């Protein structure tokens, strides 16, 4: 993945981290008194809580960023609890990804992912690593975070989830609507 493609990937990750931040902002404004209860909420009993889902989104972005810098981190999501811890991890990750997007870095050509607890690994090209590993995992945990907040009554709509595209919307001219 060349520097231009890597920059686009980092900008995409930053955009989705910003989406998560906006979702949390709106939920915080609506339910400011019970934020740690909200951070502990789960979509289902056998799923991780909201704070972990935020950490998982950040882990995907951080793993891509570390890989671009020739570093590795284990395929493990850090365990965080509480609203302020989740917000802190998100703010820190977003700042790092935004800073990296301003650099000229190129992602390595290949990535090996080892899932030790399953005793397996997979070798992927850079593009497949982004398309088939990082983004699906990021969107999964972003969707779960959104769903937990909706379940708990946060006034979120699809617009908050799709805020990255809202600036591109244009009105249809009246003559084209006829």
From TrEMBL:
Name assigned to this protein: DUF1993 domain-containing protein
Organism: Novosphingobium barchaimii LL02
């Amino acid at each position: 993945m060349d520097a231009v493609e890597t920059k686009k990937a980092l900008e995409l990750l930053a955009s989705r981290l910003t989406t998560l931040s906006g979702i949390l902002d709106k939920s915080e404004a609506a339910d400011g008194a019970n934020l740690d209860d909200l951070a502990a909420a789960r979509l289902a009993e056998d799923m991780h809580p909201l704070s972990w889902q935020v950490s998982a989104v950040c882990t995907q972005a951080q793993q891509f960023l570390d890989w671009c810098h020739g570093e590795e981190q284990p395929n493990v999501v850090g365990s965080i609890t509480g609203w302020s811890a989740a917000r802190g991890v998100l703010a820190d990750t977003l700042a790092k990804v935004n800073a990296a997007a301003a650099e000229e870095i190129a992602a390595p050509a290949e990535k090996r992912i080892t899932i030790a607890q399953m005793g397996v690994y997979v070798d992927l090209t850079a593009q497949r690593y982004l398309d088939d590993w990082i983004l699906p995992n990021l969107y999964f945990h972003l969707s779960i975070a959104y769903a937990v907040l909706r379940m708990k009554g946060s006034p979120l709509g699809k617009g908050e989830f799709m805020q990255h595209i809202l600036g591109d919307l244009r009105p249809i001219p009246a003559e084209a609507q006829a």
